[in-house]
């Protein structure tokens, strides 16, 4: 990236760049932001304060709804129309933005404060070429000049797009997610702003792409001396990329300070909770409460307080999910450890419509084999497009395989019909990724959980209601939830309802297709804990599809790593983490943010 | 995944186990901790039990009740419906007892709007004409909903060759002009001699269903791949029952909106056909027929034409306004809290 520095002075010399490096570039004091909604004013942010020195990277960490994005949007004057700054000041370079005219804020945007938005899929205009969209930014800030084409190519090349001049002539749909995000970074940094606001810049991307993009962003902003305000929900990522952390919770800053110090010595209970459940920091599999109790009593007897494999247990310290009533273990049909699900030489070929109506074959799943022992968790890990969800759908018999076989309890699944298929459905249940899509918005929670019982004609009205109550209790939801509708619940709560629905038929196997990927860290930890407790209690077998190796660490016993439709590595979780055989697996492991920071 | 995507690797870094240390600033950064009493720690992801729980329909109703557009249109429609059911309450003069002596007379006591050329009471005919228009509107909408809804739902849900056939069939009906089609249907031996309200309903349904079919198809396609449908199938629900239980109820909102707007347009279409003499027979009292009869008098006695036209416009307008209000209330995007 040597070409970055000499382009740097292409921008008209800004007298302010020579300012004292000890005065903050951005300073937010006692900021309060209020949204006017139909239910009255909502105080989204209260008493927030933070400061960013020139060239510094500061990360705001918090769960969704904590006010982290709102705070950042206020700094660039882009609050939604029903939101307003109701108190406090935002100083950018000594100038109070909250009192600045809208003309002045437009001036600042792009040229002094750049922005990289969250979703690369919707933030590029699909009808304009990438190059045009970069040029637009340059023009708006009077930096296009005579040779704007070369300038556009330079800017794109800096962001790490190879063959930039040709890429500039392409449309957004011809770019992958990672490339779009690079284009957005190019746009954000095109006018050499002194502050870049990056709002969850990589949360929509695969981990390996995420790492590349963040590495690149790091390098670029260091070379340009740009200060970065990074907004993220991932504590590990924040600690790895920023000098300073600001932890927000319910619209307030609860803790701020040097990144590593906060990570190692969190003071506020919320930060402690975050650190404890950050998946990237997990060093071993979750243990159920029962197993822990057994362990503790064993340890007490032998006066040895060492856990199973001699490691400390940083996860699951927080007793968030402890089912109050642990019902006796329901034994499965076969003994624990026996193979319940066996996949042999499974292949799925999709016909893709190509140019001129010619169909081309696309091998989504290519000759994979693995088996799942009863009562354990097998994870399939891979990036988007690796074919892992296709495997899940075929295992659920919702999609017919092209070749190969799936044996469930010794019976071939994809030839099942009628009654046999109906019975198979009862024993294998899915939990899907998107908590907002997996529950019918027209059904209240009672009908949602009752539906499987009704379909399978189990019990009468009264016994079904009792069962629904039990299931809600099992997933730690109050019985009053029964009359609610999905849109009244948060993502994590919906996912717990989806778990309750899946459990209604006492299945043997649950297939979790990215079941926790859409959830906040704490909620994710809560759901993982719940899944783990239920596994212990009910002897469930999980097939866990995920892109996140950090999650695998916490829940899985065995791992299959998938790449381009093939399984490249299969072994126990410990083996994969401690001794990865394949380059690709190593790459995935390296991409876990913050993995090397804590332990 | 489309295969023409360019790979993500912008710059390929060699894979070596990296240990990233995190950044350590040369500046001193103050470690701030908020006092705990300011932000008490709540349990993770609690259910807010204080809010009232509402179904989609209850929620929509709560929104509707506050909309002036809805209140006005609903009151007008209520009035129109009552008039259609018991016209005798509103007009005490028989609309068919016409005396030529009163031909084109102006308003007088008991006859507030005057008389037509045939000597019939304008007010009374306007009131009694409501029933025919509303009947045509309501039954056409019902017919269109049944045929178009079934066609659209099946085409959208099953796709493939069924979709191709049904979509082309709908396109053919779309391509035929309504008035031409209505003339042909009216000339069929079956209808030529016994024209009635139902002839008009059949003609309008035959050419009106493709619109609802299209809307239904779109809404069903949007929902058929939803995770909750997949989940229901994985629970053992048959595809057809998944369509009925999950896909159709979730697709109803746009259909209801379009149906209420087209109810208005069907009333207009009926009036148009009657005006052209290919709609309701003259024995049926209807606004379209009255407008048609009054057109010869438009220069010297325009009020005879005006009143049925006003009644028609108000009725149509209120159904269209109702549709608009429903669209706002049933907007699924507005429901994501």
UniProtKB/TrEMBL annotation, chain B:
Protein name per UniProt: ABC transporter permease
Region annotated Disordered, chain positions: 1-20
Phylogenetic placement of the source organism: Bacteria, Bacillati, Actinomycetota, Actinomycetes, Micrococcales
Alphabetized Gene3D superfamilies for the sequence: MetI-like (1.10.3720.10)
Pfam families membership: BPD_transp_1, OppC_N
All residue ranges annotated as the ABC transmembrane type-1 domain in the record: 130-323
Subcellular location(s) of the protein: Cell membrane
Species, as recorded: Arthrobacter cryoconiti
Recorded family membership: Belongs to the binding-protein-dependent transport system permease family.
Membrane-topology annotation of the record: Multi-pass membrane protein
Keywords carried by this UniProt record: Cell membrane, Membrane, Transmembrane, Transmembrane helix, Transport
Xref: CDD domains: TM_PBP2
Listed transmembrane segments: 69-90, 134-158, 165-185, 197-215, 252-285, 305-326
């Amino acid at each position: 990236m040597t070409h970055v520095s000499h382009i740097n002075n292409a921008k008209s010399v800004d007298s302010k760049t020579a300012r004292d490096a000890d005065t903050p570039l951005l300073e937010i004091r006692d900021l309060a932001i209020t949204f006017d909604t139909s239910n009255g004013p909502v105080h989204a942010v209260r008493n927030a304060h933070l400061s960013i020195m020139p060239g510094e990277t500061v990360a705001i960490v918090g769960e969704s709804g904590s006010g982290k994005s709102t705070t950042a949007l206020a700094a660039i004057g882009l609050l939604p129309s029903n939101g307003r700054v109701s108190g406090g000041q935002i100083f950018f370079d000594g100038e109070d933005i909250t009192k600045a005219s809208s003309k002045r804020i437009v001036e600042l945007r792009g040229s002094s404060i750049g922005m990289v938005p969250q979703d690369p899929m919707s933030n590029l205009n699909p009808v304009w070429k990438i190059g045009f969209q970069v040029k637009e930014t340059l023009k708006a800030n009077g930096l296009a000049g005579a040779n704007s084409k070369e300038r556009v190519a330079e800017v794109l090349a800096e962001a790490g797009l190879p063959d930039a001049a040709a890429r500039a002539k392409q449309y957004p749909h011809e770019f992958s997610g990672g490339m779009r995000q690079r284009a957005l970074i190019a746009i954000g940094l095109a006018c050499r702003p002194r502050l870049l606001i990056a709002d969850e810049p990589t949360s929509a991307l695969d981990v390996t792409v995420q790492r590349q993009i963040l590495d690149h962003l790091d390098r670029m902003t260091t070379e340009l001396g740009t200060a970065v305000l990074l907004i993220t929900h991932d504590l590990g990522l924040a600690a790895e990329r920023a000098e300073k952390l600001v932890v927000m919770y319910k619209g307030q800053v609860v803790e701020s300070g040097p990144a590593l110090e906060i990570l190692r010595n969190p003071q506020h209970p919320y930060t402690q909770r975050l650190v404890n459940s950050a998946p990237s920091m997990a060093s071993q599999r979750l243990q159920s409460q029962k197993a822990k109790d057994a362990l503790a009593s064993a340890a007490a007897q032998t006066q040895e307080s060492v856990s199973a494999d001699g490691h400390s247990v940083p996860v699951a310290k927080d007793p968030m999910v402890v089912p109050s009533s642990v019902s006796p273990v329901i034994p499965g049909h076969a003994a624990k450890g026996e193979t319940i699900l066996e996949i042999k030489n499974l292949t799925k070929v999709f016909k893709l419509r190509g140019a001129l109506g010619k169909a081309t074959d696309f091998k989504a799943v290519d000759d994979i084999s693995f088996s799942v022992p009863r009562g354990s968790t097998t994870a399939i890990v891979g990036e988007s497009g690796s074919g892992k969800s296709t495997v899940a759908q075929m295992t659920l018999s919702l999609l017919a395989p092209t070749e190969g076989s799936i044996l469930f309890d010794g019976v071939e699944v994809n030839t099942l019909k009628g009654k046999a298929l109906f019975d198979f459905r009862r024993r294998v249940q899915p939990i899907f990724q998107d908590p907002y899509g997996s529950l019918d918005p027209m059904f209240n929670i009672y009908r949602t959980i009752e539906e499987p019982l009704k379909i399978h004609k189990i019990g009468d009205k009264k016994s079904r209601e009792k069962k629904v109550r039990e299931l809600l209790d099992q997933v730690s939801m109050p019985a009053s939830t029964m009359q609610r509708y999905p849109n009244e619940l948060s993502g994590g709560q919906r996912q717990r309802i989806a778990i309750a629905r899946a459990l209604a038929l006492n299945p043997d196997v649950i297939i979790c297709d990215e079941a926790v990927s859409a959830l906040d860290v704490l909620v994710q930890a809560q759901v993982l804990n719940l899944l783990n407790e239920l596994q212990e209690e009910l002897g469930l077998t999980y097939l866990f599809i995920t892109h996140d190796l950090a999650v695998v660490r916490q829940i899985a016993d065995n791992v299959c790593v998938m790449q381009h439709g093939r399984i490249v590595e299969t072994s126990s979780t410990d083996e994969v983490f401690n001794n990865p055989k394949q380059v690709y697996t190593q790459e995935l492991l390296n991409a876990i943010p913050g993995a090397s920071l804590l332990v | 995944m489309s295969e023409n995507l360019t790979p993500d690797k912008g710059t390929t870094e060699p894979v070596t186990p990296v240990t990233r240390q995190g950044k350590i600033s040369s500046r001193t950064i103050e470690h701030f901790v908020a006092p705990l009493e300011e932000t008490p720690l709540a349990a993770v992801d609690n259910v807010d039990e204080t809010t009232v729980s509402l179904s989609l329909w209850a929620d929509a109703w709560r929104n509707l009740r506050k909309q002036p557009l809805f209140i006005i249109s609903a009151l007008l429609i209520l009035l129109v419906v009552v008039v259609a059911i018991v016209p005798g309450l509103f007009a005490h003069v028989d609309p068919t007892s016409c005396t030529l002596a009163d031909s084109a007379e102006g308003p007088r006591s008991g006859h507030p709007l005057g008389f037509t050329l045939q000597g019939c009471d304008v007010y009374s005919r306007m009131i009694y004409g409501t029933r025919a228009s509303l009947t045509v509107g309501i039954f056409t909408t019902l017919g269109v909903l049944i045929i178009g809804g079934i066609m659209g739902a099946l085409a959208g849900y099953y796709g493939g060759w069924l979709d191709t056939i049904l979509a082309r069939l709908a396109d053919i009906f779309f391509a035929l002009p309504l008035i031409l089609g209505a003339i042909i249907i009216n000339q069929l031996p079956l209808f030529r001699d016994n024209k009635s309200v139902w002839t008009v309903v059949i003609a309008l349904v035959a050419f009106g269903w493709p619109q609802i079919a299209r809307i239904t198809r779109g809404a069903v396609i949007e929902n058929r791949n939803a995770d909750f449908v997949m989940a229901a199938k994985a629970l053992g629900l048959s595809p057809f029952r998944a369509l009925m239980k999950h896909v159709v109820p979730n697709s109803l909102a746009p259909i209801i909106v379009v149906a209420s707007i087209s109810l208005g347009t069907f009333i207009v279409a009926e009036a148009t056909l009657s005006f052209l003499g290919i709609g309701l027979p003259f024995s049926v009292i209807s606004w379209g027929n009255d407008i048609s009869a009054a057109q010869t008098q438009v220069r010297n006695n325009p009020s005879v034409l005006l009143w049925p036209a006003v009644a028609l416009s108000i009725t149509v307008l209120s159904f269209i306004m109702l549709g608009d209000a429903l669209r706002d209330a049933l907007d699924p995007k507005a429901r994501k809290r």
